[in-house]
Write a structure and sequence with these properties.
- Keywords: Signal, Transport.
- One of its GO terms (cellular component) is outer membrane-bounded periplasmic space.
- By secondary structure, the chain is α/β, with parallel strands linked by helices.
- The chain folds into 2 domains: 201 residues, Periplasmic binding protein-like II (D-Maltodextrin-Binding Protein, domain 2, 3-Layer(aba) Sandwich); 84 residues, Periplasmic binding protein-like II (D-Maltodextrin-Binding Protein, domain 2, 3-Layer(aba) Sandwich), CATH 3.40.190.
- 32% of the residues lie in helices and 20% in strands.
- The protein has a 5-stranded mixed beta sheet with strand order 11-10-12-9-13, sandwiched between helices. A 4-stranded parallel beta sheet has the order 1-6-2-7.
- Strand 3 and strand 4 form a beta hairpin.
- Helix 2 runs parallel beside helix 4 and helix 2 packs antiparallel against helix 11.
- The chain is globular and about 60 Å long.
- The chain starts with 14 loop residues before the first helix and ends in a 17-residue tail after the last helix.
Length: 320
């Protein structure tokens, strides 16, 4: 991941991340997804209930307006997915801002949730998704085993991961940031983490970035975002480093923590795909270019992330 202005994973940019998020000490949840199955938490998992709501009416209207593809080739991966009648999405129900279950509606809301439903509508003609919960440790295995068709999970594109799976996009850009308890002094940059205890999610790209800037930092790894926040809140850690968007979601659901201004890396998020289906990567990239060009991407951002982040809609990252 799991890390924008704005939407696995991180150490998870353009104006996308720096401007909007730096200004927003808080972030929120957003949008909608469909059915769910599976188990476990994912990069960026957040156990707290979001205190903000995205513009679900706008998201629903955008999904309804999405026109199905008319050029799906027989025998292609897209044709197979259309025939199976649902898009199997590796993701989460617990990532504030990107993919968070609203217990009052039973729907998953967020930028990732909305984008996956839009892709399902484009392929199948209806926004039918089957959400399979994934972790940073299981994403590649599920894709390689063809147990999911896609992964939308604040999934940072890295050369190492690209040897195992394919990535469409990037479709979102984030950056590593620092979260501390409110009232903390003496920490304003990664370099200030020397000698400090830093928590982050296992499977993320954080340890490399932190050690480069603060070689004496003591890094503790946890499986979920929730565990990291608990360690920070309980004074078992001095700071939490992860993607800015995920940390900002924590600040919405946990009033004891705050995100420090600034990001320290560029974390391009990709849509994870099986490596042995190159036709599907081309198909999804073409779709991404379409929704960026016709304004749908910007409208989804505004209806989800933009409900909490001030400022103009960021420019999406270039696909490919």
């Amino acid at each position: 991941m799991n890390a924008i202005p704005s939407l696995p994973r991180s150490a998870r940019s353009r104006a996308l991340a720096a401007g909007a998020l730096a200004a927003a000490a808080l972030f929120a949840t957003a949008c909608s997804s469909n059915s769910s199955s599976g188990s476990s938490a994912v990069p960026g998992s957040n156990a707290g209930k979001a205190t903000v709501k995205s513009d679900t009416d706008t998201v629903a209207a955008l999904i309804a307006a999405e026109q199905p593809a008319t050029d799906i080739k027989p025998g292609s991966t897209a044709a197979r997915i259309k025939a199976q009648g649902t898009l199997r999405v590796g993701g989460t129900q617990t990532a504030a801002l990107f993919s968070l279950l609203d217990p009052t509606t039973g729907k998953v809301e967020g930028f990732d949730a909305a984008m996956s439903q839009l892709l399902a509508k484009y392929i199948i003609g209806k926004p039918s998704t089957d959400l399979v919960n994934v972790t940073a440790q299981t994403r590649e295995a599920l894709l390689k085993g063809h147990q999911v068709d896609t992964v939308f999970a604040t999934y940072t594109i890295t050369p190492e991961r690209a040897k195992q799976v394919a990535f469409a996009g990037p479709y979102y850009q984030d950056g590593l940031a620092i979260e501390v308890r409110k009232g903390t002094t003496g920490i304003s940059s990664l370099a200030d983490l020397n000698g400090k205890t830093v928590v982050t999610e296992s499977g993320s790209t954080v340890p490399t970035a932190v050690k480069a800037a603060a070689p004496k930092a003591k890094i503790q790894l946890f499986d979920t975002n929730t565990e990291c926040v608990q360690a920070l809140s309980q004074h078992r850690a001095d700071a939490y480093v992860l993607d800015q968007g995920i940390l900002a979601g924590n600040a919405v659901t946990n009033k004891d923590v705050q995100v420090l201004p600034g990001t320290y890396t560029k974390e391009p998020y990709g849509i994870g795909l099986p490596l042995d289906e190159p036709d599907f990567k081309d198909f999804v990239n073409t779709w991404l270019q379409k929704v960026e060009a016709d304004g749908t991407w910007a409208k989804v951002w505004k209806a989800t992330v933009g409900t909490e982040v001030p400022g103009p809609v960021p420019t999406p990252p270039a696909v490919g």
